[in-house]
Protein: Diaminopimelate epimerase
Organism: Orlajensenia flava
Amino acid sequence: MAMDLQFTKGHGTGNDFVLFADPDGDIVLAPEQIALICDRHFGVGADGIIRAVRSANLPDGAAALAEDASAEWFMDYWNSDGTVSEMCGNGIRVYARFLIDQGLIDFAEGDSVAIGTRGGVRDLQRSGTGFQVDMGRWRLDGGEPLVRARELEVARPGLGINVGNPHVVVALADEEELEGIDLSVIPQLDPEPTEGVNVEFVLPHDPLVHDGVGRIRMRVHERGSGETLSCGTGAVAAALAVRYWAGKGAPNDWRVDVPGGRVGVRMFPAEDGEHVALSGPAELVYDGVLALA
Ligand SMILES: N[C@@H](CCC[C@H](N)C(=O)O)C(=O)O
């Protein structure tokens, strides 16, 4: 059906999204339309698309409402190739900014807002000029697959971590390795995860810990989007992996530098086990209208 789609372009540390409001869940985009909108030459250009829909108005939203009845809004997230993902750590902050901008939620300083995602309900708070997201519990996942990238002479062991969506984190030796990897091609994993995976390449700063804060750099190849300037869930997975490798005494506060900026990661005890929080900026850049065929 031909239609005009009102959208907003936004980003969190350079991880960019096309967002649109569809409170009643009427707008169905085909994967090819999503890929075209995200195309940087033939469309708007973005790493992903976020539809703002009331949880009550889509099947995945029922699980969110069962988990937390206050999760009125659901983040319906698609990667730039038209596949869905369970969760997006940068996207959910930009989504909160969008809901505020559209007048769809009240979000005063000190409030907490629950948002439904396919990876579970996430609680957000304002933090400085951005937001902090409680990403909930995390788990080691998928063992230690070997990761091959063309420029690495030998395959490296990765660590599988799930933070709502799946990640494999690989430690690199030096800056040359981090900068030299060509992420225009998908890193090869052995065994290959059937549902695909986001792969983070991390480099610890020297010294790793400064003033009680762990510091790492990261580049990422996102499932369904390729290399991006940042990945919030990837930063969380990377900090968790480096803390795991560093062992006893490693800090719970982390600073993660990505090509598009910096995000913060904090692990903290909660009633149901350890949670991990992500903080960072969220910017809306411009509004537009797309004529969809
Ligand atoms: N950029 C996101 C992650 C988006 C989803 C990911 N590509 C997947 O398929 O799981 C983030 O900031 O977390």
The chain has two domains: 3-136+281-292, 139-271. The domain at 3-136+281-292 is CATH 3.10.310.10 (Diaminopimelate Epimerase; Chain A, domain 1).
